Amino acid sequence: MSGWIDEHHRGVRYGLIGEVLVEETSPFQRITVIRSERYGRGLLLDGCWMTAERQERHYHESLVHPALCGATSVARVLVIGGGDGGTARECLRHQGVEHLDLVEIDGRVVELSREYLPSIGGSAWTDPRLRLTVGDGIAWAAAAADNSYDVVLVDGSDPAGPAEGLFNRSFFEHCRRILRPGGIFATQSESPEAFQEVHLAMVKLLKDVFDHADPLYGWVPMYPSGWWSWTFAAMDQPRYRQPNTNRAAAIADGCHIWSPRWQRGAFEAIPAFIARELS
């Protein structure tokens, strides 16, 4: 039976008309899979929208391609979170990726995504370059060897529950430590409108931990406010701003949102009130 399915955030509802297909509580969170006419099947965690079949490219392409088109090498990639498989799928479109570690704390998110949202992970789940670990990504980063990854991507939910530890100095410092020279770190960094305080705190902290860090602004219409951000960081130079021409050409035709032109505009689309806070 169809009805409104809403995320409630600070007195505002963000919803779709649809039906709940599955709802269960894992050891970590409440997981809901829905079906809607507008955006297809979708996923909520603890009542917050995570992804949907006809929304996911807005998010995954924005997180992945500035990093993988900018890093010196993309041979070894670490994705923390991302249990729906979309970030891994976009990474593995880059032929230079030789090994990708996907570390997701909640195995049920992976299982339900593979069953109900198979198009989001697509061929990533059977790609021999992917190694899935169901475990704590914070502990994984802390235990990883120095200079062990070319790209580190954090595809986590909002800073509460199992994702809370993905938003602090110790974790970001480990991510910096495990990056190889020429590497890039990237994370979703919330909405500059709906989560303004968290967004500013994350960007400021990343600017402190890394030599360079810059937010990129886009949109995920189903998320609170629809206005979203991803922040990229690197040592020595902001190499995430300059896409490798050959890598960009190899993946551009398969992208719905990302292109070098879109990326340039998205980095420059910083609103004045955020720029003042970061100056």
Describe this structure in words.
The longest helix has 14 residues, at 196-209. This protein has helices at 56-68, 86-92, 107-116, 118-121, 137-143, 169-178, 196-209, 245-252, 260-268, 272-278; strands at residues 3-9, 12-25, 30-36, 40-45, 48-52, 76-81, 99-104, 130-134, 149-155, 179-188, 212-219, 227-234. Helix 1 packs across helix 2. With 279 residues, the protein is of the alpha/beta class. The radius of gyration is 17 Å and the shape is globular. Strand 4 and strand 5 (48-52) form a beta hairpin.
Describe the SSE topology.
Blueprint: E1 3-9, E2 12-25, E3 30-36, E4 40-45, E5 48-52, H1 56-68, E6 76-81, H2 86-92, E7 99-104, H3 107-116, H4 118-121, E8 130-134, H5 137-143, E9 149-155, H6 169-178, E10 179-188, H7 196-209, E11 212-219, E12 227-234, H8 245-252, H9 260-268, H10 272-278
Parallel strand pairs: 6-7, 6-9, 7-8, 9-10
Antiparallel strand pairs: 1-2, 2-3, 3-4, 4-5, 10-12, 11-12
Helix pairs in contact: 1-2
- Gyration radius, to the nearest Å? 17 Å
Q: What's the CATH H-level homologous superfamily of the largest domain?
A: Vaccinia Virus protein VP39
Helix content: 25-40%
Tally the beta strands. Answer: 12
Distance between the termini: 51 Å
**How many structurally independent domains?**
2
Percentage of residues in strands:
25-35%
Poorly predicted residue ranges = none
Average per-residue pLDDT, rounded, comes to 96
Largest sheet: 7 strands, mixed
Question: How would you describe the shape?
Answer: globular
CATH class of the largest domain: Alpha Beta
CATH topology of the largest domain: Rossmann fold
Structural class: alpha/beta
N-to-C SSE string, H for helix and E for strand: EEEEEHEHEHHEHEHEHEEHHH
In quaternary terms, these chains amount to single chain
- The total count of helices amounts to 10
CATH architecture assignment name of the largest domain = 3-Layer(aba) Sandwich
Could you give the order of strands across the largest sheet? 8-7-6-9-10-12-11
